Structure to design on (916 residues):
């Protein structure tokens, strides 16, 4: 005695996993209420199915990745067509009302002695809103809408208000509990996402009125008091019983499992992709999603309204966001057709965004649209194929692009105005000035109180300043020292502009060095020639044997080398699976994997690296501040060449100032740069790269492949292996090793924190490369300018060309071919800005999540602040763009960075990082 709604597709074929539409009228044919008997064929089938479900669940046969009846290999057809299945999910064995055989109908009749034979009336169309009605005999008096129930103690007639209660409660219940839903969907092979559970006072009253433990109407299941308990065996059985009724009444809801998806590039068709790129990853923060019916790319009215709103947001944001559109198809039909279908869906969205159907303002065709076809997928749902037929639309913020026309530099652009803090041994001045600053005066007055002896002054000037300014600055300091009170006798005060005329650090060059007692100058004259030398020899050469340039650095080298050699032996043992000191956990920590392939590669690389470290005494020299582009700006050391052509240069005075462990680490680090095949796949004739330094956030963000080509991964692994083996402590940490910054995140979603950390780590690394390579470029350009080399003979030729594309400097290919003084000043300013930005991001940062926007960075007096703010739109950006957006915000908050050239700084940093 039931009336059911039988939903079919428009072509008469069953919809795969198609829930009942929410806007389908509840009483489609004005049917009235009736109650089915507990012993009819539908009830028997529900009990039988529930028995199977519970037995499997209780016996532990349920597996999260399987249904009871996993799909077998199938024959593919078009997406609109059904697909043959040799083994069906349990839901496919459940019979809809209209398909029961005549024998079953006779059994129903036998249970209804007072009533005439029930007649089932069905409508085939999915859109036909006439409900199927079973007619009772005259004694039953009414035409009624069908309700299925699990019998309680009686078949009492319902009260007159049950019908209105059904109307008012339809669809308002709670979804299935998550764990139960997962188990039951896998067990049935059906999607129960639209099922609603009613377990409240109203459902109890209705169930009692029907004399039922529970009853089902469409997607709604109503429970009597204490009957909804899916954690017990009886509760599971009752729930499975009622879910069987859900499938009986809505046969289209169940999953026609067809085949394993073939999201394989080999199935991509050669034609018909219509401007779509293929993709397997997808955005996680899309602005909206559009859903489709099977085999179709038509967009419904509700989705068109959503796209119109997206177009309006694009204009309101005024950021010129890239519009990313991802199209997907379900696994029905041929894989090649689904590739085209997913692209067609993306194209349909693009067209609607450009030309909204409601006549509103669309996104112009000049905007950047990136369309990705994903082909067929199950990533949204392995149960409900309708969830996989969609498009995702994401407005992706992008950093500002380079202008079509080079901006004109203003009179205050590309200036270095920073004034370092003065001390008792060095007084700093403003650009172009010999006037003492307040800080300079204070430092001199403190020095006077110490009554220094043998005071000598040396004044300097930066490259672009008049050379006479060096003497003027020395005279200014002399005057202050000789003033009362506490006047000081000064032995000499000279200017030496030539000593700093090739330095990129203009701010440090604008100074006066104060030497007292027996102290020697720390700012060297790089152009001074040894008197009488022929050919001319420089007093302060760029590089020299350490024994001649700085014996203290040689001593530091000789102290660190045995530690480095011992560490290499420990590393080889720690990576040897047959050795007693094998340390797979340490391998995992520093190389991201410890499988046989990693161990084989690592063992070979470590043996070659060990030989290189042992041979360092024969190939190592020292370099000082006259080593322009090398040791000039204070690095620890550097390597040139590989294998037998390799040389190492230790920088004076930085190397000798290191902790002994850190000095040993650096010897291994630089040796790795000079050892093949540590460059990795595709670079077997090269040594390692500085993909991440020990103190950088990227250090433990690298892939195993990148770790195998990263210098500090080898160096730290070796030192840690030595420490563990020496102490017997698996958690031992060698002293003197710098660690990455420790950032604080406030108000950032947990799922967003890791991607944000990675973006900040990439930012730090990008700026490290930018600072280093722009500094080296300045050194190479200076050598071209003084005639000691040509652009054609240096790697810097390509880099200078890239600079000329972004900044107002001369391209190497255009006369005069050599850099001008103005070019050098601009290069120095670019180096300075990258230094300031890198310094800002090396600190511990505090990151706040905000309700709207992309990213902003707090400003500061001399560098940007250590606080930044991240909005939800940031996470919609492409990962590479996230790095650029961070750099753009940082540049905007860095004093002195030219606003018109911020896109140039961002773009050139990306170039240097990509070509490191």
């Amino acid at each position: 005695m039931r009336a059911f709604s039988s939903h079919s597709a428009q072509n008469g074929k069953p919809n795969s996993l198609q829930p009942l539409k929410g806007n389908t009228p509840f009483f489609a044919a004005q049917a009235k209420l009736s109650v089915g008997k507990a012993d009819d064929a539908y009830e028997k089938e529900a009990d039988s199915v529930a028995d199977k479900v519970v037995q499997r669940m209780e016996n532990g046969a349920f597996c999260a990745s399987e249904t009871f009846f996993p799909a077998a290999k199938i024959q593919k057809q078009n997406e609109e067509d059904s697909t043959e299945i040799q083994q069906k999910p349990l839901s496919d064995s459940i019979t809809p009302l209209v398909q029961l055989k005549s024998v079953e109908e006779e059994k129903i009749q036998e249970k209804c002695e007072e009533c005439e034979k029930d007649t089932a009336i069905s409508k085939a169309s999915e859109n036909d809103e006439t409900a199927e009605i079973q007619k009772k005999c005259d004694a039953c008096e009414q035409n009624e809408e069908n309700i299925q129930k699990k019998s309680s103690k009686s078949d009492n007639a319902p009260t007159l208000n049950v019908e209105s209660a059904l109307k008012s409660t339809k669809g308002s219940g709670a979804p299935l509990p998550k764990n139960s839903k997962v188990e039951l969907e896998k067990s049935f092979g059906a999607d129960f996402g639209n099922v609603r559970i009613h377990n409240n006072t109203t459902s109890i009253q209705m169930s009692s009125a029907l004399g039922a433990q529970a009853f089902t109407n469409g997607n709604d299941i109503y429970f009597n008091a204490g009957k909804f308990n899916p954690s017990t065996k009886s509760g599971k059985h009752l729930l499975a019983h009622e879910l069987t009724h859900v499938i009986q009444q809505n046969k289209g809801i169940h999953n026609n499992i067809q085949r394993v998806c073939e999201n394989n590039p080999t199935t991509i068709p050669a034609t018909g992709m219509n401007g779509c790129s293929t993709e397997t990853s997808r955005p996680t923060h899309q602005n909206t999603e559009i859903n489709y019916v099977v085999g179709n790319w038509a967009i419904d009215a509700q989705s068109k309204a959503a796209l119109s709103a997206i177009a309006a947001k694009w204009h309101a944001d005024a950021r010129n966001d890239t519009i990313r559109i991802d199209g997907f198809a379900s696994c029905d039909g041929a894989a090649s057709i689904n590739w085209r279908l997913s692209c067609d869906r993306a194209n349909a969205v693009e067209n609607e965004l450009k030309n909204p159907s409601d006549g509103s303002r669309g996104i112009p065709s000049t905007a950047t649209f990136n369309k990705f076809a994903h082909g067929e997928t199950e990533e949204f749902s392995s149960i409900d194929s309708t969830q996989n037929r969609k498009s995702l639309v994401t407005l992706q913020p992008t950093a500002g692009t380079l202008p079509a026309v080079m901006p004109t530099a203003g009179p205050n652009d590309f200036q270095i105005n920073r004034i370092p803090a003065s001390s008792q041994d060095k007084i700093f001045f403003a650009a172009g000035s010999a006037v003492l600053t307040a800080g300079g005066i204070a430092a001199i007055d403190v020095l006077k109180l110490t009554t220094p002896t043998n005071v000598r002054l040396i004044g300097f000037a930066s490259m672009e300043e008049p050379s006479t300014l060096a003497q003027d600055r020395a005279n200014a300091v002399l005057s202050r020292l000789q003033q009362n009170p506490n006047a000081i006798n000064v032995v000499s005060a000279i200017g030496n502009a030539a000593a700093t005329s090739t330095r990129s650090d203009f701010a440090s060059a604008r100074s006066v060095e104060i030497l007292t007692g027996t102290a020697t100058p720390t700012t060297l004259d790089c152009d001074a020639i040894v008197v009488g030398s022929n050919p001319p020899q420089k007093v302060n050469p760029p590089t020299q044997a350490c024994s001649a340039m700085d014996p203290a650095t040689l001593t530091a080298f000789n102290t660190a080398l045995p530690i480095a050699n011992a560490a290499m032996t420990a590393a080889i043992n720690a990576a040897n699976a047959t050795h007693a000191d094998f340390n797979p956990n340490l391998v995992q920590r520093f190389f991201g994997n410890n499988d046989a392939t990693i161990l084989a590669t690592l063992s070979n690389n470590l043996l070659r690296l060990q030989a290189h470290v042992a041979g360092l005494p024969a190939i190592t020299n020292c370099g000082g501040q006259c080593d322009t582009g090398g040791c000039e700006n204070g690095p620890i050391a550097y390597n040139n060449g590989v294998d037998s052509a390799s040389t190492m240069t230790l920088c004076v005075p930085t190397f000798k100032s290191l902790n002994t462990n850190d000095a040993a680490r650096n010897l291994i680090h630089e040796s790795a740069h000079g050892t093949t095949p540590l460059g990795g796949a595709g670079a077997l004739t090269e040594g390692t790269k500085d993909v991440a330094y020990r103190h950088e956030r990227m250090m433990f963000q690298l892939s195993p492949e990148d770790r195998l080509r990263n210098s500090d991964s080898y160096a730290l692994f070796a030192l840690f292996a030595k420490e563990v083996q020496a102490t017997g402590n698996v958690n031992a940490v060698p002293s003197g090793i710098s660690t990455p910054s420790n950032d604080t995140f406030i108000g950032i979603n947990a799922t967003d924190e890791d991607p944000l950390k990675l973006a900040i780590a990439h930012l730090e690394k990008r700026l490290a490369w930018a600072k280093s390579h722009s500094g080296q470029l300045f050194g190479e350009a200076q050598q071209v300018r003084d005639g000691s080399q040509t652009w054609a003979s240096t790697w810097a030729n390509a880099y200078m060309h890239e600079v000329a594309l972004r900044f107002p400097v001369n391209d190497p290919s255009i006369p005069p071919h050599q850099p001008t003084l103005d070019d050098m000043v601009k290069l120095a300013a670019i180096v300075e800005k990258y230094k300031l930005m890198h310094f800002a991001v090396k600190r511990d940062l505090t990151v706040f999540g905000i309700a709207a926007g992309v990213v902003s960075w707090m400003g500061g007096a001399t560098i940007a602040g250590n606080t930044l703010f991240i909005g939800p739109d940031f996470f919609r950006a492409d990962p590479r763009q996230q790095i650029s957006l961070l750099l753009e915000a940082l540049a905007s908050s860095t004093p002195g960075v030219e606003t018109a050239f911020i896109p140039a700084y961002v773009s050139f940093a990306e170039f240097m990082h990509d070509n490191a």
